[in-house]
Specification:
Elements: H1 30-35, H2 69-83, H3 88-97, H4 102-115, H5 120-135, H6 139-148, H7 153-160, H8 165-180, H9 187-200, H10 205-217, H11 221-228, H12 232-243
Helix pairs in contact: 2-4, 3-4, 5-7, 6-7, 8-10, 9-10, 10-11, 10-12
């Protein structure tokens, strides 16, 4: 109608906005969007598809060459050594479990021996020192642990020789004193528990019985009376027969 302002349209014939001379882009309808391929839609129109160039591609590009058996063996050894020091026997066992051949295993371990990465003698000395100081283990228990880890008998004996009898006795007495602070029960029951504790840590029967007897004698009058009746030699012989 004449004189009436025409209603501005929203299509292609809409008047340009005042902020610029470029007409606004028309909004696409649902049909238009469906016709446009996008990275989130597969050629078959699956809405759960994600545009991953490697998805479903099982082709080996060959960019990473396969590792040799020796490289695998070295990697296994280094991972084992990253946790704690290992003996040669422990590393050989780990390699065997992973299917490394004995020839390659020996070659890698020989090289590690040469450069000092593995050293059973140093391992044994460190093991004896650490386990005696930290757990109070005596030589017999330590010898058993070293044997389980494949340390040669002569190498183990040399390391255990650094732990003398006096040090072993001092440690036994300190263990009993510490345990007695929280011990409860009649003196005979406490005596058996303390001797059993030292025996499990590898102390000889005579040393264990003597250390517990002396500690009880200094604890109380009742415990001292019981300790006076303990025959160390007789009990040690009986314990020795039982162990055999």
């Amino acid at each position: 109608m004449a004189g009436r302002r025409a209603r501005s349209g929203r299509g292609w014939d809409a008047a340009p906005s005042r902020t610029g001379d470029t007409p606004s882009r028309p909004r696409r309808g649902r049909r238009d969007r469906a016709d446009q391929p996008g990275p989130a839609t597969s050629a078959g129109g699956d809405p759960n598809y994600r545009d991953n160039p490697d998805a479903g591609d099982d082709t080996d590009t060959g960019s990473t060459p396969p590792r040799s058996e020796a490289e695998l063996a070295r990697e296994i050894c280094l991972r084992q050594l990253a946790v704690r020091p290992r003996t040669r026997a422990e590393l050989a066992g780990a390699l065997a479990r992973r299917g490394v051949s004995p020839e390659v295993s020996a070659e890698v371990l020989d090289r590690y021996d040469e450069v000092g990465i593995i050293d059973d003698a140093a391992f044994a000395r460190a093991w004896v020192s650490s386990r005696h100081a930290g757990r109070g283990l005596a030589r017999r228990a330590l010898a058993n642990e070293l044997r389980q880890r494949g340390v040669d008998g002569e190498v183990a004996s040399a390391a255990l020789g650094e732990l003398d009898e006096d040090t072993e006795e001092e440690t036994a007495r300190a263990l009993v004193q510490r345990k007695l602070r929280s011990a409860r029960g009649e003196p005979d029951a406490v005596f058996r528990r303390m001797v059993g504790m030292l025996a499990r840590k590898g102390y000889p029967p005579g040393l264990a019985i003597r250390a517990v007897k002396d500690a009880l004698a200094a604890q109380s009058a009742e415990a001292a009376e019981f300790a006076d009746q303990v025959d160390v030699d007789a009990l040690a012989d009986a314990e020795g027969e039982f162990e055999r």
